[in-house]
């Protein structure tokens, strides 16, 4: 009887051990919200990276608790210190990051790209700013004062010498202001000559002055528009020199742009960087190509555009603490998903069959 009871106890212990082995293993997963890879909808995380991770969960028997971080830098610090078990987002694999955390097999080919306002160099405000900076607005103001002064002088003379001239001041001033601006803008006049041959000479000189003023105004606006276009337009990486570029803090884009010696402005989120771009705080944004492309595609009403080709190609992977026991099994499962085409199908669902 004693032997039978001992056998039953050993069998029950083995069953309990087996149940524990097959039970889901809890893991803490750090995320950084970066659509379309990680998004938060109705309190739940979603996106391409989340879907990919959850397919790995099912195969490895894991149960994830998600913890959000405000930047790539904070996320990498958390996984490097062992605060979390894994980092799941569009995390670029770099040599510097690989010194503090371990990366899985790459699961997405990426790179950097440039975003600029779609209404930039030719906007009315930019032209006004250019005219002001070059001193032309001050000259325009003096020319307007001259036109108003001439209007008053001509009105005083007409009221004294022309019996048919309107007696009301507002009508007389309006008539002569139109006359003055007509000469300045077209070089033509239909005003009655009250001074004979002397009046003809003065009218001719006034028309010559008007032609000169129109030539000056036209040339100054044209030159400012040309200069503004050449100065402000950004078409490629080489055009960023001397500009202020918005980047996400702790991102590969930040490191890359700073290494080029270009001035940067850091932002915690893509939406904040877009606002900085539209408000003129920065001249352009440099960020992960798929993230910027998804933003432009999903929000067609935003006055932004992508310029140039993808540069600085890189790859995304999931991050783990160094020596993590999860690194090898997750990498093996990712390889299997690649071979079966599951990752390709997932990418096509989010980005279309564009690559």
From TrEMBL:
Main location per the UniProt record = membrane
Is RNA-binding among the key words of this record? no
The membrane-spanning stretches of this chain are 140-157, 197-217
As one GO molecular function, the record gives: ligand-gated monoatomic ion channel activity
Give every Solute-binding protein family 3/N-terminal domain span.
Answer: 26-354
SMART domains xref list? PBPb, PBPe
Keyword Ribonucleoprotein belongs to the record = no
The Ionotropic glutamate receptor C-terminal domain covers 26-353
In terms of Pfam families, this protein maps to: Lig_chan (PF00060), SBP_bac_3 (PF00497)
Compartmental location: Membrane
Give the signal peptide range. Answer: 1-17
Membrane protein topology class: Multi-pass membrane protein
User: What Gene3D superfamilies does this protein map onto?
Assistant: 1.10.287.70, Periplasmic binding protein-like II
What keywords are assigned to this protein? Glycoprotein, Ion channel, Ion transport, Membrane, Receptor, Signal, Transmembrane, Transmembrane helix, Transport
**What is the name listed in the Swiss-Prot or TrEMBL entry for this protein?**
Extracellular solute-binding protein
Species for this entry: Advenella kashmirensis (strain DSM 17095 / LMG 22695 / WT001) (Tetrathiobacter kashmirensis)
Classification of source organism = Bacteria, Pseudomonadati, Pseudomonadota, Betaproteobacteria, Burkholderiales
């Amino acid at each position: 009887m004693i032997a039978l009871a001992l056998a039953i106890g050993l069998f029950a212990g083995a069953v309990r051990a087996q149940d524990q082995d097959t039970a889901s293993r809890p893991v803490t997963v750090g995320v950084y919200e970066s659509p379309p890879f990680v998004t938060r909808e109705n309190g739940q995380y979603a996106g391409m990276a989340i879907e990919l991770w959850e397919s790995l969960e099912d195969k490895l028997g894991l149960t994830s608790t998600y913890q959000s971080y405000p930047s790539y830098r904070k996320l990498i610090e958390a996984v490097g210190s062992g605060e979390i078990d894994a980092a799941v987002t569009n995390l670029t694999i770099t040599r510097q990051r690989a010194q503090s955390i371990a990366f899985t097999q790459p699961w997405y080919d990426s790179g950097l790209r440039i975003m600029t306002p779609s209404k930039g160099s030719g906007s009315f405000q930019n032209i006004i700013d250019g005219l002001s900076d070059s001193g032309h607005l001050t000259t325009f103001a003096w020319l307007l004062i001259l036109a108003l002064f001439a209007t008053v002088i001509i009105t005083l003379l007409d009221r004294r010498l022309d019996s048919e001239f309107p007696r009301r001041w507002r009508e007389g001033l309006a008539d002569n202001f139109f006359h003055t601006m007509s000469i300045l803008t077209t070089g033509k006049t239909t005003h009655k000559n009250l001074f004979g041959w002397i009046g003809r000479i003065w009218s001719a000189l006034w028309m010559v002055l008007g032609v000169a003023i129109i030539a000056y105004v036209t040339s100054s606006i044209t030159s400012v528009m040309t200069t503004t276009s050449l100065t402000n337009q950004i078409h490629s990486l080489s055009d960023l020199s001397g500009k202020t570029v918005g980047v996400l803090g702790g991102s590969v884009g930040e490191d890359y742009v700073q290494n080029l010696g270009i001035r940067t402005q850091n932002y915690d989120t893509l939406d904040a960087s877009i606002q900085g771009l539209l408000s003129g705080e920065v001249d352009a944004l440099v960020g992960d190509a798929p993230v910027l492309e998804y933003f432009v595609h999903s929000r067609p009403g935003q006055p932004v555009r992508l310029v140039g080709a993808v540069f600085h190609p890189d790859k995304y992977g999931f991050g783990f603490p160094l020596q993590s026991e999860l690194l090898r099994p997750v990498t093996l499962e990712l390889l299997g998903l690649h071979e079966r085409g599951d990752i390709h199908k997932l990418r096509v669902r989010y980005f279309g069959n564009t690559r």
